[in-house]
Amino acid sequence: xxxxxxxxxxxxxxxxxxxxxxxxxxxxxxxxxxxxxxxxxxxxxxxxxxxxxxxxxxxxxxxxxxxxxxxxxxxxxxxxxxxxxxxxxxxxxxxxxxxxxxxxxxxxxxxxxxxxxxxxxxxxxxxxxxxxxxxxxxxxxxxxxxxxxxxxxxxxxxxxxxxxxxxxxxxxxxxxxxxxxxxxxxxxxxxxxxxxxxxxxxxxxxxxxxxxxxxxxxxxxxxxxxxxxxxxxxxxxxxxxxxxxxxxxxxxxxxxxxxxxxxxxxxxxxxxxxxxxxxxxxxxxxxxxxxxxxxxxxxxxxxxxxxxxxxxxxxxxxxxxxxxxxxxxxxxxxxxxxxxxxxxxxxxxxxxxxxxxxxxxxxxxxxxxxxxxxxxxxxxxxxxxxxxxxxxxxxxxxxxxxxxxxxxxxxxxxxxxxxxxxxxxxxxxxxxxxxxxxxxxxxxxxxxxxxxxxxxxxxxxxxxxxxxxxxxxxxxxxxxxxxxxxxxxxxxxxxxxxxxxxxxxxxxxxxxxxxxxxxxxxxxxxxxxxxxxxxxxxxxxxxxxxxxxxxxxxxxxxxxxxxxxxxxxxxxxxxxxxxxxxxxxxxxxxxxxxxxxxxxxxxxxxxxxxxxxxxxxxxxxxxxxxxxxxxxxxxxxxxxxxxxxxxxxxxxxxxxxxxxxxxxxxxxxxxxxxxxxxxxxxxxxxxxxxxxxxxxxxxxxxxxxxxxxxxxxxxxxxxxxxxxxxxxxxxxxxxxxxxxxxxxxxxxxxxxxxxxxxxxxxxxxxxxxxxxxxxxxxxxxxxxxxxxxxxxxxxxxxxxxxxxxxxxxxxxxxxxxxxxxxxxxxxxxxxxxxxxxxxxxxxxxxxxxxxxxxxxxxxxxxxxxxxxxxxxx
Length: 873
Fold this sequence. Notes:
Elements: H1 27-35, E1 41-45, H2 52-62, E2 66-71, H3 79-93, H4 96-104, H5 114-126, E3 132-137, H6 145-157, E4 162-168, H7 177-181, E5 185-188, H8 190-193, H9 197-209, H10 217-227, H11 231-242, H12 258-271, H13 275-283, H14 292-298, H15 305-314, E6 318-320, E7 328-330, H16 332-345, H17 347-363, H18 367-376, H19 380-397, H20 400-408, H21 418-430, H22 434-449, H23 455-475, H24 478-485, H25 497-500, H26 524-539, H27 546-561, H28 565-576, H29 579-583, H30 585-601, H31 605-621, H32 628-642, H33 645-653, H34 668-680, H35 684-700, H36 704-720, H37 724-741, H38 745-748, H39 752-766, H40 773-788, H41 813-823, H42 828-835, H43 839-853, H44 858-867
Parallel strand pairs: 1-4, 1-5, 2-3, 3-4
Antiparallel strand pairs: 6-7
């Protein structure tokens, strides 16, 4: 089973476009773009035909800065596809290793939110300090609200060295007022893009060099006045004049009316073209890219290259898509004119050419393009057949919006099979539209119930059960699942890989963090469903299906959390022996992490490290580098639990994180280990800062296990720094969520510090009068938790202290002397004289001392030394 079907990135969409020959250089606009480059955002907004894309390409070629380019179109109205292209574009201009990491982050989608993906992308960009420009061309093509919100979020948190350029025909669909107030947004609008008299004169001077009669100043003024500086109108007028027309038709009633001007002049231009050129234009109008191979496929020509060269000579609105001028597209206005003409006067040709284009893309394996062309050709049978074949690939890419858009293009009068209807419902479930999917499933269930008994009916009901199982993992409606499953479980006949071989985990170190794992929700109902479901699958020979193994792994992690370690170990053995568990890293890594935690819970730390070694070796062998950091973080956590702080610190040094970061949900496992390490070093303020940034992200993802862990750590850090009231309040929050899911190990694994804090909480709550029923239940939950802990010292919890922190690295003699001199109030010069060292050396020694103590000032150093009793002698 492949880890991930990589989305086919069309290189032309992320390549810097080539420049036309004899381009009119627009110095004033280039200067305006450069001047506004100190801010975060430049917008170029004007109607079609004002040279927005040409200006952007011209600036990018001349800027001597790295430019990541994305050409957008209607097909990009899929959040996963959109951000994958943005990541691919950025990766293409970054260093190889960082670029690879950036692309790996797209595996977060669609299971995590767009904001979570963007947090990770932004964090990656902060590591890159050199100037970089991201250019989004034709944003007006994007109407998906989630993408708009994502771009707005990106703008708000973009690193200072990253500049975003956006071109659009319409105003941006998100606010930029914040940036305008802070002078971070540079707007270039239609008036600025209009050609000036000088630019118009230079444009026609060049055109006249190529056989066009030179225009007088008065004619140029008339032309500029009629077109109002619209460059496409000037180009059309030039073509019309070259064809022998005059300026008479430019009368006052069409002044500035771009629709009338373009319609009139396009007709004038193509009306004088040779018939073979016009035929070629019409036959290729359906294409979004023009190169000899695809043109050969959709036209009646056997060799299209000469015709493309002829179009270049005629300057017929060909836009180069690369520097080598091997691939082109028609200018958007010209393309729309040709398509309108084709539809209006040659409807049969429109359908025929789209079908030929679809067949060409099928032949080269570009199924996305093939499906779009078949839909445009109204060939529903071919389109639906292709969709059925290609659906699993697009599902594995996570592009749910694309699949939904294709399904929505199927007319209601076109009958699709019940199998395809169920697949449609499955995609709606995965897309998160729970209400719509429930309606669809109920309708399909009614239809299936009316079918005569047959193997097909049972197969359909089996498929429905799979889809409903996914739905229940998202909405928690267990009653609906039990009602439908009753009576059909024994006849379950799963045979569709789209359901039982779907890879549910691309990135998470714990399966219970995925939607399939219900993001940490645990209950007797989830356990019962898991047993029923996996039992039936195994009775029908599907014990090695990914669906079965993922449900088992999620249940296995649940058993660990419930501290039912024997059942956890038994289930682990079953999963380990299944071949897909060795091939699918989304199973293999979580399995070995659970194995390591089990051994650690039993006190067998050497075996826990061995389990991590086994996972590490497999990940390296498969070059699945995205799994290395979580494995390193888990090892670091084991060291902390063992009290091997020095080793933990060395392990953490190899993680791509820092206390200065803006932490991201996708690296939560790593940051929570860093938090624990900071706590051991008595750097509670820094630890709490990281937790405060992580917690809203966990809440946004509705990740119960994360919220409990983060809130529990907040309570420990607050208690450690003496904030008893705040600590107990936070612990209560963690306990309330934990009680709802019967969590145990999330508290137990924090060790004696958590034990003492829980005892303090129990004593404090036990002294309260008139406890509410829920408070009584919470208190009983705490007492149950305390029974799981080892027999720690029974000291009075009201005076209990969190275990005394130790320095990860002992201070040497010089550093101890420095501490004593700091206590005496000595300046650097006095220290140098006392120790016989230079002031420069003193500064170096002080820096090392601060690093070991985890502080940044002399006062902090003295406070830390006092808490560690370093100067008591």
